[in-house]
Structures are given as C-alpha cells and as structure tokens.
Design goal:
Elements lengths: L1 E5 L2 E3 L5 E8 L4 E10 L6 E7 L5 E2 L7 E5 L5 E6 L8 E10 L5 E5 L3 E5 L2
Parallel strand pairs: 2-11
Antiparallel strand pairs: 1-3, 3-8, 4-5, 4-9, 5-6, 7-8, 9-10, 9-11
Amino acid sequence: VRPVESGGGMVQPGGSLNLSCTASGPILRLQRMSWYREAPGKQRELVADIPTYGETNYGDSVQGRFTISRGNRQNTVHLQMNSLKPEDTAVYYCYVAYTDFELRFLEVWGQGTLVTVSS
C-alpha cells in the first residue's frame, strides 16, 4: 500500500490550500487516515486524523482552520487548510493504518508534500 499525497505548494499568509491523499493497494479494512507535518528542526506532529469509526481529531495549532474529510474516491482523504500562517510551513505527510487480506495491522507513510506559507 502506498499513500500518494498531492496539493502542496506555496501560498501567502491568510491563503488556503487543499491537500489530498489516496492509498492504493490491498486494503481489506481501512482503520484511519491522518495528516502529520514536520517543520525544519521540529518533531513530526499530528495535524488531523479521521478514523473509519469515530470522530476526527485536530492538532491544537490548526483547530478551527483546517478540515479533514473523506474523498469520493475510495481510501482518499482531503485536508482543507484555511487562514494559513508562516508557522504552518512544513512537509505534510499522509499516514494510513489498515488491515490487509492476511489480517495484519499495518501502518504506512506517504513521501510528503511541501507546504510553504510566505509573503
């Protein structure tokens, strides 16, 4: 299974971007899909999380500005980012947890997409 991210780029402060992630491969049951980010010199942190069953979760710094949602395409999630700030600059990674056809619980990461917020 390979998560593929898209939608990163450069935007001015106050602007918006929409990230997408699609997980392709032998997924029997999707457990959750999440977005994390890693800024230079900082640890990777949770941005938003959407489990198959349960409520969405957001990091404190993005609450009220970012929205995670499921896409129409299977095993796809979107991250709508509004009111972007320079401190949102980071590489954004898609995380997928799933059960495969051998009933193994597996976790995979995408390669990341860079978001730069700068004037």
